[in-house]
Structure formats: C-alpha cells, structure tokens
Specification:
By secondary structure, the protein is an all-alpha fold. It has a single domain, classed as Ammonium transporter AmtB like domains (Ammonium transporter fold). A two-stranded antiparallel ribbon has the order 1-2. Strand 1 and strand 2 form a beta hairpin. Helix 5 packs parallel to helix 8. The model has no long low-confidence stretch (mean pLDDT about 90).
C-alpha cells in the first residue's frame, strides 16, 4: 500500500510538470507597487510562522519526539505548496459551486493565475501574489493540528491526513468564508485573517484526533527545550504581523490597524496569563507567557481589522482567561491533547469569532446591529460540526488506508528513532 501511495504522488507531480502552465501574459492592468511590495513581505512573514511553530511545538514535546514533532510542521511547507498549486487554490478560490467550494478546474495547476490583478480578489496586486499569500495560510493550518497528536502518529499517515484535510476541510471553509460568493461571506460573517478558516478548523480537527487516537502510552514528560518555545513564540509573533496586517491586501489603514491590534492583543494576553497563574499560586513560567501570547494572537485574528485598540486589548484579556481555564479543565479530563491545541486555537478562535461579532466596526453588537452577531454564531456552529466530524471521518479513512498510530514499542522509544532514524543529543 505504501508503494502505491508513493507512485500516486509521483504521478501527480509528473502530470503537474508536463501540463502546468507557466505562461504569464503582459500586464494589462496597472499594479500598485507599494501594495505589492508589502504583500511580498507579508507573505514571507507568514511563511516564517510555520518554522516558528515547529520550534514552539518541538520545545514543548518530550526529548525523544522533538525531531518528529518539528518535521510534522516543517514538511507542510513542501506538501501543501505542491497541493495548493495543483488543486487547492482552485477549490478555495475557484468559480463558486453553491457558495461551498470552488470548481477544481478553474485554476488547475495555477492556470490563469498570472501577474495581472484579479479585481474579484484584489485590484492592486498580481493575482499570483494573492494566491501565494493564501498558500501560507493553507500551509500552517494542518501544521497546527499536529500538536494534538504529537508522539503517537506514523509520519506517512500524517502526510495523507494533511492532504485530505486540506482538500476536504480547509479549502471548502476558506471558500465559504473568503470567496466573494462564499456562503459565510454573503451572510456577512467577518473573518479578517483566519480565526475561523485556520484556527477553529485546526482546533476542532485536533479535538477529533485526540478522541480518535486516545491517550499516549506515557504522559507527563518534561518539555524538551524551553528556549525553543520562546524562540518559536517570537517567530510566530513576528510572522503574525504578516498574517493579520497582510490580510488587508495592501499597504493601507486597515493594515496599520491590524498591526497595532495584533501586537496589543498578544501583549495583553501574555501579561494576563502570567498574572492569572500567580493569583492561583502557580509560577509565572516562560511556557505560560508563551502560551498566553499565542492565544492572544489567535483570538485577535478574525477581528484584527475591524476593532479599536481598546477592544483588541479586551479581546486579548478575556481570551487569555478563557483558554487558561479550558486548558486546566481539559488536562483533568480523559482527552489527551498533547500540546493543548484545542483549548488554545479552537477555544481562542471561538472567542475571537464571537467577539468580532460583538465589536466589529459599524456592524457589531455594540453598534446595535444583531444580524452580524447571530450569523457569526450560526457560522460557528456549522464550522464546529463540519470540522470536527469531517476530521473524525478523515482520521478513520487514513487509518484504513495506512494504519495511523505507531506500535506501542515505537511510541515508547520515541518517533525520532522509530519514524526517522534520528535523535537529538
């Protein structure tokens, strides 16, 4: 079965090379050089987030699983980049089919994704740049899920899951939320930079994986490298400026507002986290400060360009408290979410989405507009059911094709050795 999967992957790559279009027409529409320059930089910022995530997760896991955990994030840079060009971008942003998914033939192999702007998505930057910016979001989303099952999944099986998740979960959700004809977008649901598309989808997929895979054989092992966690958090925070500010799709006032809100929400969440821990008699730890900062980044993501500075501070504050409580509760349960992906990204994304409906400029609940808030709640419920049960089904499918969990003896030895034949000193 493994050889067949490898052959299929090779076949797809050959077809892509033979029939993919690399022709770019002469520019017919002018582009804004300032917007283009910023979006190139923002795209690079977002790409850096995935290596940052690998350090963040790698530092948190036990020493025998550091390489495997980091590689599960890092390999998404390769797998999803190819998948996105071949079919992913079409599914997410192609001609709408019922407002749910794009026509896979619209931009197959990046055909018609050229250097002219596409006014349907952005009038001032090349369409190719828009597609590449969106690629970075597609890369980090499955990488986020890996923290929930770190230390107990076969690497080949994970790659298959990542491909299926991107096609059947991420792309439809991106289409519904961000495509001009997407069903959520037409309802008025606001997701500035991916609170729903990225963080809630990853969070609920993580919860599904936690339920399907069950507990680890050995729990409670120490973090391998706290400085790695701090480094990873710094890279994530840095990259998040591209993640959120870049979602303005230009060098404009929305980008500046998103930049400011991103920084302040994260800073507030970090400070809230460590002082809340101290109030309960716990140490003000480096790991806690890093988790708090990331939760703030997650929660402000859907609201980044729609709220004021004061509201961003409140979002960081309240989301930090909610996720801290959720982590404590989940660790006392039978669910073994290794690196707390669901209470951090899932709950953080939910908090951010609800508070976006509350505070969004002109259309939020605080402005006396109820419709946006109720549509946010409806979209939240649909997203939760779709991502959780859809991911649960995908875990089962992968398990049938390629057994997903490593053998008990491999798990005890660690995935670095059993899956990759490598280890850290």
């Amino acid at each position: 079965m493994g050889k067949k999967i490898n052959f299929i992957v090779l076949f797809v790559l050959v077809i892509f090379v033979l029939f993919g279009s690399n022709e770019y027409n002469e520019l017919k529409n002018s582009i804004d050089t300032g917007d283009t320059a910023w979006m190139l930089v923002a795209s690079a910022f977002v790409l850096l987030m995935t290596p940052g995530l690998s350090f963040f997760y790698g530092g948190m896991i036990d020493k025998k699983n550091v390489i495997s955990t980091m590689l599960q994030s890092f390999v998404a840079l390769g797998v999803i980049s190819v998948l996105w060009v071949v079919i992913g971008f079409s599914l997410a942003f192609g001609e709408s089919i019922g407002g749910i998914i794009g026509n896979p033939l619209t931009y197959l192999n990046f055909n018609d994704v050229g250097l002219d702007p596409n006014p349907e998505f952005s009038e001032t930057i090349p369409f190719l740049l828009f597609a590449l910016f969106q690629l970075k979001f597609a890369i980090i989303t499955p990488a986020l899920i890996t923290g929930s099952f770190a230390g107990r999944v076969r690497f080949r099986s994970y790659i298959l899951f990542m491909v299926l998740f991107s096609i059947f979960i991420y792309c439809p959700l991106a289409h519904m939320t961000w495509h001009p004809e997407g069903i959520f977008r037409n309802w008025g649901v606001l997701d500035f930079a991916g609170g729903t598309v990225v963080h809630m989808s990853a969070g609920f997929a993580a919860l599904a994986g936690t339920l399907y895979l069950g507990k680890r054989k050995m729990e409670g092992e120490e973090h391998a490298n706290v400085p790695f966690i701090i480094l990873g958090t710094g890279l994530l925070w840095f990259g998040w400026f591209g993640f959120n500010s870049g979602s303005a799709l230009g060098a404009n006032e929305d980008a500046v507002a998103a930049f400011s809100n991103t920084n302040l929400a994260s800073a507030t969440a970090m400070v809230t986290w460590i002082f809340y821990e101290r109030m309960h008699g716990r140490k003000m730890s480096a790991v806690g400060a890093c988790i708090g900062a990331v939760v703030g980044l997650v929660a402000i993501t859907p609201a980044a360009g729609f709220v004021t500075i004061g509201q961003a501070i409140f979002i960081g504050f309240i989301s930090s408290l909610i996720s801290n409580w959720a982590i404590r509760k989940m660790r006392k349960s039978e669910l073994d979410d290794t690196l707390d992906v669901f209470p951090s990204h899932g709950i953080g994304g939910i908090s951010g989405m609800i508070l976006t409906g509350v505070f969004a400029s002109k259309v939020g609940l605080v402005n006396g507009v109820y419709e946006t808030f109720f549509y946010h709640l409806l979209a939240l419920m649909i997203c939760a059911v779709f991502c959780f049960f859809g991911s649960l089904l995908l875990f089962k499918v992968v398990d049938v094709i390629l057994k997903i969990r490593v053998r008990p003896d491999q798990e005890i030895r660690g995935l670095d050795i059993s899956q990759h034949g490598e280890k850290i000193d």
